[in-house]
Please model this.
Amino acid sequence: MTLFSLARGSLSNRRASVALTVLTIAIAIALLVLVEQMRSQVREGFYRSVSGTDLIVGAPTSSVQLLLFSVFGLGDPTSNVSWERYREIAGQPIVDWSIPISLGDAHQGYRVVGTTDAMFEHYRYAGGRALEFRRGGPFSDLFDVVVGARAAERLGYAPGDEVVLAHGGGNVSLHHHDELPFVVSGVLAPTGTPVDQSLYIRLEAHHAIHVGWEQGVPRREAMLTPEQARARAAAHDHDHGRKDDSQDNRQDGLGVDRDDDHDHDDDPGEPDGAESASNAAAAAPAASLQPDEISAFLLGLKTRAAALGLQYRINQQREEPLLAILPGIALQQLWRITGLAEKILRVVAGLVVLAGLLGMLTALLTTLGERRREMAILRACGARPWQISALLLLEAAFITLAGIAAGLLLAVAAQFALAPWLLERFGIAISFAWPAAWQWLVLAAIALAGVLVALVPAAMVYRRTLADGMQVRQ
Amino acid sequence: MPEPLLDIQALTFAWPGDRAPVIDGLRLAVEPGQRVFLAGASGSGKSTLLALIGGLVTPAGGRIRFAGEDLATLSRARRDRFRADHLGVIFQQFNLLPWLDPVANVLLGCQFSSARRQRADNPERAARELLAAMGLAEDRWARRADELSVGQQQRVAAARALIGQPDLVLADEPTSALDADRRDAFIELLFAQVERAGSAILFVSHDRDLANRFDATLELAELHAGRAVA
Model:
């Protein structure tokens, strides 16, 4: 028998109320740990998605908004970037690669991104990892779709499946483009980024499903049939003698781009307004599917150090102003916005911990009356007052430590429970992580605070055992 | 003539808040191994006297010499040590920590005294021997103490008071919760073990039927203000 085993015996004698006290503290600790863990995990998850991208360019808006809609599919672009400007910037010698992005469509709640094969070749995440195909491969036909891992899993898509894509960004779409069925060409391996939650189609196909939608409502007669669309795409490819514009232009440089854009502008079937669109059906076979606008584009530079200079040049340009952002800096701005909420959550978590410790104090104080007899017995056996006080401190230490341990377990469980939601909502994959060193210090401080709180009943017991003598005096 | 084990002279004590002292000029002596019956009605200061002998409270006046030490000259920590080393205590009831089994409760008796542990040699075995000697059936040894009957609990309490052979056992109405048959059986067993341990016993009770089994009988009321007989 030691003081320790006496404390343990006394606790297990009151295990129901002790368990409740431990649970109270555990919930408080779990909240505290979870707030911090989610904070750092979400930050890391967001950073993962943009870590391989040097610049993101879009129409002028706020940095955070551009970052959120271009990479994370949160919110919508307010205006677009002209194709010419994209080609001009993408053609600069310091640019290693560029990925154009056209947004605005969704399929069963997953966003549909118009892009090029450059996405699968050049997009990097989590410190330089490239996208991999789990099954199938990149685009070959105009109406091919590449499906992110999570979307494919949830929708049950495999290469060869037919998919009907709808215009609009929401979960529910009123208008379905039954005319333009897509075929899954590949399924990507999981990345833990919003890529998993996206469907990728070619820019031209993205453009094709919007022909006839120029006024925001569908006009059936202006829409393209798959055959018309393929014919247009083929004509376009034939004109320019190549299939992948973004790739070739990168090597061609600025001069070729200008030619390209010139041809493009002269295209008689260009559906850029209600007037031309009304003729679209007639002019369809000759019309190109080359989009004249994209939502944004991602840039990878030959040297990361060049990013600041290019950003400055893009942001200073006065005709057709654009916004170029460094993703890391934009994320910092985002965190500054969310920082206040995090601070409030932290304060709340701290107060809940305090409430938990006060709950323990209450529980210890209410046991003192019923434990008076036990203390008298221990006194009669020769226990010193400090030893009886130490019993209370030991119990408090045990309750606090058990609460902290249970709280950590709860936090882990909550992380696992929250992970699917974060993945679904933001495309952010979080994994379990141990608290950082400074968090362990906070937990140690809480354990110490638990023992300090117990000094109150310990001191009361100390005085009472001196006054009581060997028997409880009424 | 060797010094008595316990020698109390002119002892005075009042609890804080009480006007009249509950003990007033008390004289008492107990020889080593002596069995002393101390008779007194409730409220006559029996429990206070035991607390004074145990060194848990300090007298207002007078002197307590116990096992060669003047308790008043010891620090409070030393008095606690002294109590743990030299004294075994049996209360009227609720002697045991309810969540411990009988063996662990008996071991509490030498938990706070290394001298008692040494004298017990192997405390675990000593505890089992004492429980067996006090007639507690072995199938009760692994139960929680509060599952035992009152009589069984008192036997465990006696075993705890005796483990490690203390010089003196203080018994405060240990049989008042027992019926006459079990009371007699308990006293038999207690005396046998007290004798085996070589301890003296100061047995406080209002039940004067028991008095003839003791070496000496004292009336608490007569011990006050120098009217003592030893």
User: Anything to note?
Assistant: The CA atoms of residues 43 and 69 of chain B lie 29 Å apart.
